[in-house]
Amino acid sequence: MQDFNFYAPTQVVFGKNSESKVGELVKKYGGTKVLLHFGGQSAIKSGLLAEVEANLKAAGVDFVKLGGVVPNPRVSKVREGIDICKREGIDFLLAVGGGSVIDSCKAISAGRYFEGDVWDLYLKKARATKYMPIGCILTIPAAGSEMSDGSVITNEEGWLKKDYCVNEFRCKFAIMNPERTYSLPAWQTACGVTDIMMHTMERYFSKDDDMEVTDSIAESVLRTAKSQVIKVLANPTDYNSRAQIMWAGSLAHNDLTGCGTSGDWATHNLEHELSGMFDVSHGAGLAALWGSWARYTRNENISRFVRFAVNVMGVEQDFHSAEETAEAGIKAMEAFYHSIGMPTSIKELIGRDITNAEIAEMADKCSNYGQNTVGCLKKLSREDMVNIYKMAR
Amino acid sequence: MQDFNFYAPTQVVFGKNSESKVGELVKKYGGTKVLLHFGGQSAIKSGLLAEVEANLKAAGVDFVKLGGVVPNPRVSKVREGIDICKREGIDFLLAVGGGSVIDSCKAISAGRYFEGDVWDLYLKKARATKYMPIGCILTIPAAGSEMSDGSVITNEEGWLKKDYCVNEFRCKFAIMNPERTYSLPAWQTACGVTDIMMHTMERYFSKDDDMEVTDSIAESVLRTAKSQVIKVLANPTDYNSRAQIMWAGSLAHNDLTGCGTSGDWATHNLEHELSGMFDVSHGAGLAALWGSWARYTRNENISRFVRFAVNVMGVEQDFHSAEETAEAGIKAMEAFYHSIGMPTSIKELIGRDITNAEIAEMADKCSNYGQNTVGCLKKLSREDMVNIYKMAR
């Protein structure tokens, strides 16, 4: 097993009516003037934004609103947020939404005191030294950004999608009320669960076979997400199942499922190029690629794929053939993706055949023109990336 | 499921040679002058204390030493620590040891700025309003105090054992090097694992059957602790197994295994009287009582005991009889306790028959002379306590 750090300082306030504590929590963590950051119309239509505003006012917390964050959040919106924070003397960032809104807040947090352009941080040209505190009211369980140290931002110039990770990005508090996820459409629910499971699987499919407690917890998170999404798609207002998924989403990405193992993250890297180029949902992009990645790499640690097949997918083990069992597990996962409406190929994802030129461009970007590899179970070269994209086409 | 708060801000630094970061971590969390708190001779003999002293010196951190903490840590030692902190201008508490040393640090933390006597806090007569920061180097995986909000202290006058819980008790950092647990004797290793499992079981045996992700994670922690202790007892320097147990110990008591469920804690309460009266090891006391508590309460939620039997103890389910399956699970747990050298009765624990007068005295104290109940799965009256102690005699 690997040495590890585990740091999950976010105060999670989970349950019915938990939004009513937002003003009190902002003040507890030192906020006096808040940037209230959100996405589209759903936060307004559901009445959540009005509730939050009233709660902040009652707590004597001043705020400025900035909506319009889109999926694959844009650096242009981040720059707008930074300008507002400087101009208005904002001292606390409050995200109301899902991972895109939280990630946008994180970028604003890093850019607020940084002298250069915030995008340079995501290009790893520099590190920020001072950050603004962030809190969130989560409405979409998926990205796990509410407890993670990471933020992924898209630059419209060139459609580059890049991440920046730092412990200062961990939210001070995360308010989670499963009822607020009742209105999520089936497609978005399924994309979210795919992302949740993938955050766990990226950590699970490692070369380190010897962290039993972590592996077993990862399997618990995977089995829960898999079983509960079926219930939620059948009954969108099933509180307990919505709650399981919501909490699983945080546990999948607060590093708990990676303690002592070295994560892979190749599928995420390959997908970032896909959603960067086609602006598709991240979760759906992951589903479209995973099976091909798994078949391409499974012999690097076949026993891990057998374990996944048996302990997560409930496949009956073929004791004569690890390969057969592993393949049955991958097939079962693809059947599960289809059962919740997810694609398992790029064609299903984007609705047409992808061209060789597009694949070449994605592989170029993902490998930084052949200079970098991605993944850990198997270090993927540019050629490997092309092969996997072609398998997934 | 229940609403819940989850707050685990402790920075965990886990792995080989992690002690070498202690000076840096103390400074990171604002310490300039440390009370270096420890137990008996083992920290000195192992060389750990000298290493820590050298590391603090190299980091320019001043310190004062206070050793002599005993299992079931005493309030007299806590008062001594408080006096030193006041006299010497200490601003950071560093525990080197197991749960007793950390709990003693926590009591010092609460008592340092409190105007009255620290014991009044444990008697719940008052709440402290200011606390000292605490860090720890864990050498005994058992109590889970390194990530918990609780502290249990024993008052030699009347041998009362009381707890005090507050989020300010959560350590700023916890350094965990599994190699430092190699020298733990078999008995202490087994007592520790019993405590770890019991922290999980107290949360698991609830009336709330509907937090699948939490229950499944709890079962992961239980299965891991159970399987790895067998390996460690056979090979005390098995790094991976020692590491599993060490990390399981933190996860068992940082509230992760109780998110959304209401804990029971009756066995802990019943045991506190036992170790308060006989000064026995807490873990062994828990093992001596658990089977009797389980048989006394199992019909309050028989399906939970069936699930435990099947998912944790690997018992084959008798589909005709939940009672038979539940009983087989309890018997399997008792057999496991015996296999690691733990007692399953008070006689095995204290080496003689306990008297009715002693049982009456424990039940009096545990129920505050009939005024309080303990437990949640079944609220135990004074009479119930007497019945369970008698079943366990």
Which terms would index this structure?
393 residues, alpha/beta, 16 helices, 6-stranded parallel beta sheet, homodimer
Short description:
Chain A is of the alpha/beta class.
How would you portray this structure in words?
Two copies of one chain form a homodimer. Chain A has helices at about 20-30, 40-45, 50-60, 75-90, 100-110, 120, 185-205, 210-235, 240-250, 265-280, 280-295, 300-310, 320-340, 345-350, 355-365, 380-390, and strands spanning about 5-15, 35-40, 60-65, 90-95, 135-140, 150-155, 160-165, 175. Chain A starts with a strand and ends with a helix. Chain A is globular and about 70 Å long. In chain A, a hairpin with a 4-residue loop joins β6 and β7. A six-stranded parallel β-sheet of chain A has the order 1-8-5-4-2-3, with helices on both faces. In chain A, strands 6-7 form a two-stranded antiparallel ribbon. The first copy, chain A, has about 400 residues and is an alpha/beta fold. At the A-B interface, β1, α8 and α9 of A face β1, α8 and α9 of B.
